[in-house]
Amino acid sequence: MRGLSGVDLRRVHEHVAFMANRKLLSYSIAIIIANIISALFLIFFFYAGPASSIWSSIPLGFSIFIYKILISIQASRVGRELNTGEVQIYLAHTLTRTEYLLSALLVVGITPALVLVATYLTFLAIAAPLSYDVGSQLPYLFAELMMHATIVMALAIGGHENAASIVGVMLALFIGAIMGIPLFLLILFGSNKPAFYVAYAATLLVAMATPLTYRFTYSTIISSPLHSPATLPDPLLVLLLSTAAFIILWMVFFIRFKRRDL
Amino acid sequence: MIKVVLVALAMSSAMLFAILALASIHPLTILSSSPYIPLTPPTSHSAIAVTGDRVCYLYIYDIQYSGGFGYYGPSAKPPSDLYQYNFSISELHVEVYVPLGGFKNLSSGDVSARVFEVDRSSAFEVQRMIREDLRHSNYSQYLNIISGKGYGSIVSYVEQKAVQKNICKYVHAHFICNTTSTPLSGNAHIVEICFRRGVELSTTGINDTRIDRLVDLVVNASLYKLPDSTVNRLLPLVHVDVSVLAPMRNSVLLYPKPVHVMRALAFLAVFVSCIVLHYRFRPHEYAGFSRPLRRLRRRIYRQ
User: Fold this and answer.
1) Any idea of the CA torsion for A38, A43, A49, A54, to the nearest 10 degrees?
2) How far is B148 from B244, CA to CA, in rounded Å?
3) Would you list the DSSP string of B254-274?
4) Which terminus in chain B has less CB density within 10 A, N or C?
5) What is the value of ipTM here, to two decimals?
6) What does the pLDDT read at residue B269?
């Protein structure tokens, strides 16, 4: 079963199954914790209605945090394989470099994002009709997890196994605070043109790394009398740029990984 | 990857199934509060009569509450039918306050007040009786002054129809009457305040300060050629403040319907079936599960 550029999808599938199954315990723990949090919020906050965004944002935020940790662990494992030379065993006989990186992309980025989105859809299908308010968050959720996977994989492919896990956990923990700095500057320098452009670019960059968190922050800011929404980057633009960024970055990873001296 | 997604979905539906099944057996109270809502009585009608040695005032307050979802309940229609909202007001606490600070040397024997709770139809009848008497007597264009005879028949009708009758307490130049009312039934409260004819007001702006003389002045304003400004000053001789407190019981229950539990069960069945199907095609992926199962089976057979 050969796909584009001579990639054997069956081999990729086997390797993905192998990589995912060896972290099945981590997946199970992550799913259980995320589900308990979601179920508790479902019970205690859903009566207020999705219009308040409490139900959909807070449990999603917790679930995202847990899944980001999981992504960081998976990426760190890939980094260890590269550092210890374990990767050469896979590449010697069974997999090409493209197939190896494709399976890493599927395991580190796409599987957690898919699991979280599918879990949420199941929750909503059972408990309530899918509203636009909650449904529209899912592309942002997917992009947020994919961007996190891209950042940690950039470190892992560079062989920085520990950096991948530490930066991954730090980003998951403090992304709200990191985003707060350029946003604060943007609001502060709203009228000062050169400083405003710098703050706008910084906000856009941080927002691209975390589109769902930015969308929530954006809706909070525009509903408060702090600032006019015209000067803040539009969340949809952020989503599109974020999607484009992770696609381009993964293409760069594929090209660089092929040329990398292992 | 497929296995991970399937296991995640099966676990999610199993967890939701467990919570919903548990909640459908024992409904869980999520929110419970019992705040007091202050209500403002919407309408009042009054009548005045000079009867025997007394000057009496009648006030009718329609006290009803037709609330529900809105300001005091959840603001929007709930997005899910997982919840049951209980919202009730069992009884309204009515407090009638009559300030008597404007009277001179008032003693408890000079004044009396009573509150009657009557049903809606009786309240309408009282209003009709007042209107009828006003049409016949036509004492004053300023005050709803009715005849002493008409007043007597109204009060006896009210006493007869009263669901509740409360005599108000006189405390330091004001009356306080505490009573209750049943919400949603549209009951009305009729407040009767009677002064001895000789009671005097502290300041009226004119020489006369006796309450019966003042009423007489207003009745015969045209005869005495009183200017409108003086009449208007004499009109609010007595006023009554009515405050109503509604103790509300408000609760939100997690009370899933069987359809929610069945939906969760259906999802669980579908995902478990998918796992079984996946196991048929790729049993080696489930080695992690089958090994402990095999060990358990061995242990059972050994015993």
Assistant:
1) -40
2) 31
3) E---HHHHHHHHHHHHHHHHH
4) C
5) 0.76
6) 93
**Per-residue pLDDT tens over the stretch B4-60:** 888 888 888 888 888 888 888 887 777 777 766 666 555 555 777 877 788 888 888
pLDDT in tens, A213-246: 888 888 777 776 665 555 788 889 999 999 999 9
Q: Which of B5, B23, B264 sits opposite A126 (nearest CB)?
A: B264
Q: Is the pLDDT of residue B166 over 90?
A: no
pLDDT for B73: 46
CB contact under 8 A, A127 and B80: yes
Chain B residues in contact with chain A using a Cβ-Cβ cutoff of 8 Å: 1-5, 7-9, 11-13, 15-16, 19-20, 23, 28, 30-31, 74-80, 82-83, 85, 252, 254, 260, 263-264, 267, 282, 285, 288
Q: Please indicate whether, in this complex, the C-beta atoms of A39 and B15 are within 8 angstroms of each other.
A: yes
Q: Could you tell me if A132 lies within 8 Å of chain B, comparing CB atoms?
A: no
User: Which residues in chain A have their CB less than 8 angstroms from residue B4's CB?
Assistant: 20-21, 24, 27, 111, 115
Kindly tell me if the per-residue pLDDT of A57 is higher than 70.
no
| CB contact (8 A) between residue B76 and residue A36 | no
Please give the backbone phi and psi of residue B38, each rounded to the nearest 5 degrees, phi first. -80, 130
What is the C-alpha separation between A63 and A126, in angstroms, rounded? Answer: 18
Domain count for chain A, please give it: 1
Long-range contacts of B118-122 (CB under 8 A, 24+ apart): B118/B158, B118/B161, B118/B162, B118/B163, B118/B187, B118/B188, B118/B189, B118/B190, B119/B161, B119/B163, B119/B185, B119/B186, B119/B187, B119/B188, B120/B185, B120/B186, B120/B187, B120/B188, B122/B157, B122/B158, B122/B161, B122/B188
